[in-house]
Amino acid sequence: MDSNSEIEVFVNCEVYHVLSDWVKLNLNNDMIFNIGANRIEIIIRGSKYKMVLIDAGKKLSQKKYLEDIKDHLTEYKKNTFPELPDGVFKKKSKTPYPYILPLKDGKIDAVKQYNTLKCIADTKTFLLTSEQLHIYAHHLNSSQMMCYNFFRPFISEDGTPTRELFSILQTVGIPVSFSDNARCFFEYEQEEREWQGERTNNSKGTNFDFYLRSGDVEIFFEIKYTEDGFGIFQKDKNELLRHQNKYDSFYSDKLANCPALKKKVEYGEEFRKNYQLLRNTIRATSRNKYVVFVYDANNPHAYNQLNQFLSEYIADEYKKNVVAIEWQKLVLASHPDQVFEFWNKYLNYEL
Fold first, then answer.
1. Domain total for the chain?
2. Is-contact 101 90, C-beta < 8 A?
3. What are the pLDDT digits (tens) for 98-110?
4. Residue 260 sits in which domain range?
5. Is 300 within the bounds of a domain?
6. Are 210 and 186 in contact (CB under 8 A)?
7. Is 252 inside any structural domain?
């Protein structure tokens, strides 16, 4: 990257105010922060990152946001892998798209070779199996691969998280400390008997994009990037019946006994519209369990849906256990090398 280059990074006003409080914790020889009235300028090894303020909840349409990121990823692919042809949406699709990787050698090979960052290219172990890869993992805007690319540099080959990961999480407000039994997993599903009822013959349990355990602390991560908010289920007759049965047999008791929720959510439109947020939140069964929603600060639907949910449903005493963290904040808390490569791929877009 040219030392005189300037990269404008757009975040919403709420993120800016949070950043202005904690960036001083990251001051070191590689980073300089200049905090102004309407922007933060970060100089990392001579390159300037200007964070220009917008209000994600009011000034962007979801359509424009998605188009802008696809345009950015198209340019990223063209500049990073100029020899690569465009890929198709999924295996049997025919129309190619410039922000999607080709599947000539199979999805896992395409993902490992082209959808992982250079900073983890030398890692010996790919910590996702072919069965765990999402159907759209070969898309450059895959949130699964975004999650993998962020956390993998801070995980040893045997799956043990490094101390640096704990430092990052502490910087963004998650009070977890390194312990000798610390472990982490991608695509994690709870195996305890009390959660087995979530899986049925025609329905899977909840897979968390990333999971971290250290001592008696557990952290469940739900990761979003360009998704249209958090998951709901359709009003289709079969879907309504399937989820009604699952609510009656499993979610009803979990929701009623979850201390993180202000109230029990009955089956109906309220449950349908907050389905994914609720089924993640019920993991916060005690004060040593955390549910962390990571999202792009500029994603309008994710921003609005998540902040409304946290305000309306999370009990005051659990507001530090069920939290939203913007990608922009999380990345800036990490190593300067991570800021360069990760930000350039995922967050260095223009709106």
1. 1
2. no
3. 999 998 766 788 8
4. 85-351
5. yes
6. yes
7. yes
